[in-house]
Structure formats: structure tokens, C-alpha cells
Amino acid sequence: MDRIPILTMGRILLVTIQVDMHDQLAMTLQDDLTERIVKDKARGVLIDISALDIVDSFIGRMISNTAAMARVLDAKTVVVGMQPSVAITLVELGLRLDGVRTALNVERGMELLDMGVSFRHH
Amino acid sequence: MPESTSTLSHIVTKFEKELLEEWIKGLTNNSARRDANAEKELERTCAQFLNALKSAASDSSQGIEGRAWEDIRGLLTEISKSRVRQGFSPMETANFVFSLKQPLFAKLRTALADKPTELAEETWNVSSLFDSLGLFTIEVYQKTREQVILRQQQELMELSTPVVQLWQNVLALPLIGTLDSARTQVVMESLLQKIIDTGASIAIIDITGVPTVDTLVAQHLLKTIAAARLMGADCIISGIRPQIAQTIVHLGVNLEDVITKATLADAFVIALEKTGSTITYAKQGR
Predict the structure, then answer these.
(1) Is pLDDT of B286 > 70?
(2) Are residues B73 and B193 located together in one domain of the fold?
(3) Nearest CA among B66, B93, B98, B65 for reference residue B79
(4) Nearest CB to A87: which of B199, B201, B227?
(5) Alpha-carbon torsion B251, B252, B258, B259, what sign?
(6) Residue B236's domain is classified under what CATH number?
(7) Which chain B residues are within 8 Å of A92, Cβ to Cβ?
(8) With the C-alpha atoms ordered B45, B48, B52, B54, is the resulting torsion angle positive or negative?
(9) Residue B96: beta bridge partners?
């Protein structure tokens, strides 16, 4: 069965969405991700959606829900690499992803997480 | 009707040369423009028109919307369009058609001198025919002008929404004019593209040039800010004039989640701070 891979980088999990999301895939991802956050004691989650050209309200809500789940498990979530057309679509759909951090690319997202995560250690 | 139009065709065929000469004389007398090249071009166009008129009038009982008049319509369209580009006035453009009336009527009078009833009828027919041709010319002229205006509007829209880079990672978006939904779309697209191109993390939206801010404009602004945030860039609104500050509060627009500054300079200082730059003056005591 299709799965979206979750990479571990220290205490940060990296999820790169490169295929069209459908219901089952999204559910599997949310299952896997929550499990991995608990198992790896992850403090940050980076969701890279730079490969997504088209979003609908379902994917929008899925991203926002996944981020909310990670937050409940005390992992900071950053969504990175959103395409301009995707951003405009989400805003027009009224999905402003409030409460989800965003960054331009993976590098910026990592900086954001590093700041947030190391801040918590002190 | 078929008979009468063929009378017209007959006359045009018979007196083509004289008609052409008189027509051109009338045209050049009326206009203030004198240019050998233009006159040669005019002569060619007039000859073409008479030629087309000959064939159109000979075999048709239809109005000028009919298929027989297709050539004439095409010719008039071309003339109108080129005259718009050359800056002719609508009057001059319509005169092209109307000034053929006088020589044509003169010929009709000679040809039908002994049949006053027919002459009157024929004159009326030809007159109304030329009126509709003239109106058609004006319509094309107007349409071409509207196209020009539309194109200029589009260009204006592109020109009026520049996104400039103020500093490393800092963009500025000086908005001038009213913000409607079509413009918001253009603004949003160019801002987001620039964010990708420059990797900017702060965008300053300066609304000094926005005359009024109502709920709709505010909503468009907030949309733009939300889209930029999704791309990982924070926005600062600057250039809020005192009246606009009052309007925003009276309208109950919520700008509390957005950093707002009175001037672009203030916003720039904040942006520098946020991107980790500081300003130091070269000389002390300023």
C-alpha cells in the first residue's frame, strides 16, 4: 500500500508530500506521523508541500489537522514550500491555516524549528 | 428593391472614374491633412471601395448585414481600425463614407433626370444605405477605441503593482489606487512570486497611495497577508493616514494580528530588526 515516507533528522521528523493525496493516504499519514512522534520523541515536524500544485479544501484541512495533531503531542510543526497558486487557493477557500507555522523552504523551516526546539531545551 | 440597388450598381460601374475623382476631391478638400503618401493610399482605398460597392449592389436585395456586403464590411473595418491608430476623429472617419453621397447623387440626378419619382426613391434608398454604412464605420471605430482602452487598463494594472526589494529578505509593495478584487489578485500573485524569487521573509505593504479603505479593501489586504504568511513571509502594513486609521476602527476591521506602522520608514526599521540587521550611523551625534 502507498505510504508517505517519514524521515528522522535528530529530533525532527521530515514529511515530504509528493503524490496526490486521497483520503486513505491522508489517514495513513496521520496514523504514522502521530505514532512516530511518540516513538521517536520528536520535538518538531516539517511538512514539505513544494510538490503540490493543486489543493482542495480536503487537502487544506488535512494539512491543518495533521499540524494540530502534532501540536497536541508537543511537536512544533512547520509547513514549508507552499506554491503561490496553492497559497492563493487556500486563502480563497477561507483556510488560513491559523496556528500552523509556515516557511519558504526546508532550510528556513529547519531554522525555525531549531530555534523553537533548542529554546525549549534551555 | 433589387432593381433599385442594381441602378446604383449600374451608375457606379458607368461613372466609376468620375465618381472616384470627385469623391477624392471632396475628401481632400474637407480634411486639413495634406500628404502625398496618404493621398495615394486614400485613392487606392477609395478605388477598392467603389469596386466592392459595384459587386455588392449588383446582386443583392439584402441589407448591409448580408453576405454580399461582406467585402465592403471588411474594407470599412480595416479603414476604421487604421484610422483609429492614426488618430483620426470619428467625424473624419465617418466622412470617408458620407462624402461619396454628393458625387453619387449628382450622377443619379443626371441619369434619372426624366423620371422624378424613381429619382426620389433611388435617392432615398442610396441615402439610407450610406447612412447604415457610415454607422457601421462608426461602430467599428468605437469598438477599436474600446479595445485600446481595455488594453491600457490591463497595462495600467500591471504597472501599478510593483514589488520592490528594499533589503536582503525585505520586500516592499507600494499600493497606489483603489484595491478591487481583480487588482488584489494581481498584487497577490506578483508578491508571492517575488517572495519565491528573493526568498524574502518580510513584506511591507504601503498603503499611502490608497485613497480609501473600506471593509472590502481591508478584506483584500488581509487575504494578501494571509497568502504571504502561508508562504512563510510576515507582512507589515505601513502608510496608514490618520483618517484611514479612524475609518478602520469605525468599520470594526480587525487588524490586530498584523503589525501596522504609520510610515514606511518605521516599518523598514522593524523589518530590519526582524531579519537580524541593525542600523548604525557612521558619525556620532546625529
Answers:
(1) no
(2) no
(3) B93
(4) B227
(5) positive
(6) 3.30.750.24
(7) 223
(8) positive
(9) none
pLDDT at B191: 93
Residue B27 pLDDT > 70: yes
Residue B58 burial class via C-beta count within 10 angstroms: exposed 0-12, middle 13-18, buried 19 and up: middle
Domain that residue B16 falls in: 2-157
Nearest CA to B97 out of B62, B46, B48 is that of B46
**What sections of B171-263 are H helices per DSSP?**
181-198, 215-230, 242-251
The model carries a pTM of: 0.65
**ipTM above threshold 0.85:** no
| Contact state of A84 with B193 under an 8 Å Cβ cutoff | yes
In this prediction, residue B236 has a pLDDT band, given cuts at 50, 70 and 90, of: very high
Q: Which of A87, A97, A108 shows the shortest C-beta gap to B192?
A: A87
**Element holding A6 (H helix, E strand):** strand A6-9
Instruction: Pick B21 or B193 by higher pLDDT.
Output: B193
Q: Worst-scoring range by mean pLDDT, A62-66, A86-90, B166-170?
A: A62-66
Buried b / exposed e along B90-123 (16+ C-beta atoms within 10 A): eebbbbbbbbbbebbbebbeebbeeeeeebeebb
Judge whether residue A120 has pLDDT over 50.
no
Query: Do B191 and B55 lie in a common domain?
Result: no
Burial of B235 (0-12, 13-18, 19+ CB in 10 A): buried
Closest CA to B229 of A12, A84, A55: A84
Q: Which amino acid is at A63?
A: I
Residues 6+ apart with CB under 8 A from B205: B173, B175, B221, B224, B225, B235, B236, B237, B238
Predicted local distance difference test score (pLDDT) of residue A121: 41
Residue B80 has pLDDT above 60, yes or no: yes
Would you call A71 helix, strand, or coil by DSSP?
A: helix
Q: What is the CATH number of the domain that holds B33?
A: 1.10.490
Nearest CA in chain B to A83: B231
The length of chain A, given as a count of residues: 122
pLDDT bin (cut points 50, 70, 90) of residue A1 is: low
What is the average per-residue pLDDT within B203-226? 89
Q: Which of A104, A110, A111 is the best residue to mutate to test the B interface, defined by the most B CB atoms within 10 Å of its own CB?
A: A104
Instruction: Give the phi and the psi of residue B167 in degrees, each rounded to 5.
Output: -160, 170
